[in-house]
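note to self — DONT lose this again. spent like an hour looking for the file last time. sequence + predicted structure for the chain T wanted, 475 res
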Amino acid sequence: MDPMTGHAGPQGAAPVDLLVRNAWVVTMDDQRRIYRDGAIAIAGDRIVAVGPSAEVERGVAARETIDGRDRFVVTPGFVNGHIHITGEPITRGSVPDDTDWRTNVFDWLIPTYLAQTPEEEAISATFAALEMLRTGTTCFVEAGTILDLGAVMDALAATGIRGRLGQWTQDRAFAPGDDQAALTARAVSGLEAQLARYPVVGDPLLAGWVGLVGHNTATDALWREATALAQDSGAGVTAHMSADPADPDFYLSETGRRPIAHLAALGALGPHLSLTHGIHLDAAEVALLAESGTGITHCPMTAMKGAYGATAVGLFPEMAATGVTLQLGTDGNNNGNAADMMRAMFATAGLFKDARRDASLFPASKVLEMATLNGARGARLGRLIGSLEVGKKADFVLHDRNRPEWRPLLNVVNQLVYSADGRGVHSVWVDGVRVVDAYRSTLIDEEKLYAEVEAAGSAVLARAGMSVPCVWPVL
């Protein structure tokens, strides 16, 4: 013990809050270094050392030490590039799995969104955050369907998660009596207000984002204004696009151009923009995405459940080959998934190998990049998160090796993608704070939340006038 500092470690060593040693450490740094016997040291909210255990230990005096020998794999926290955190988490499983995209969205999902109270949105957001944190996701970009942003922000602040989110925004006048100018002005005013109230300046855990619903719901004027606001504020833009042929059909009919070409003509493409799904694109659109630096968030589990056609017509291998930044998202719980990014990684690694009969597509190493580095870039936080490097934020995960799927450990990257899933996440830190410890949230009363979720889900469905179908009798 150093008598001057009170910290365990060599005399003169730098004091740190936490040292995790003797663990497998997957850094995702520029060289993609993996340490079989590695260590990571944390001071405050930052990583101050990463490397071989013996080397890191010589330089630090730790207030707390976790020995990961034969027990832990350390990775960066995953970044979920697209998730609906309200509505769908608390009505999980209620949407039939034999409905087409349009029926799914308009007859099921939207009515349940609109039936929520602010209190139910807060419960849903807390529940989504718990599921993400418990499965290793430390940061997310919300999908753009929040109704009461203030209630959701307040709820999330108590969970410890990092996120970028905005209120439901669209402006296109679909009804004959709608005032288009007024709808656009209201949408722009709402975006200005949320970005002012929840700025990204200073890199807070939670900040505002331009969450356009997308598809055909935003006018050209809104796209231009949203792009300018994002660029001026440092925020990003997220929007759904081309999950279904209805999107290109609309844009071709109305503008004579496919969606990505039309957004390019508006000046809306760029690194600030992440479009979700991007399934029904053509080669020219892929080239525009690559040239502009626009990201695409792939949600494989939703595509599978919703029969979107990702493997039949999706040009994801071509996007990867041309340098489009591909991120991963889990989308909504009713669209066929939990909020477990490790399940999304597994699906991404396998789908196109099988569809194209080409085993070289989406190797585990590239899929792990999609879930970490690329996701961080899409959240405009690449300088802070996505890898375990000195100076970056302390957002990281301990995966428990005392589980069948982690034995024997021979190729840690393959194991992460093909064998393991979020159920093996033992502990999680966000911004240097331990938010999951031994499989339990340190900040959320889980039992209380589960009871609230059960009540809220039934209430929302009843208010929306929906019953839950089942092909077998439920007695």
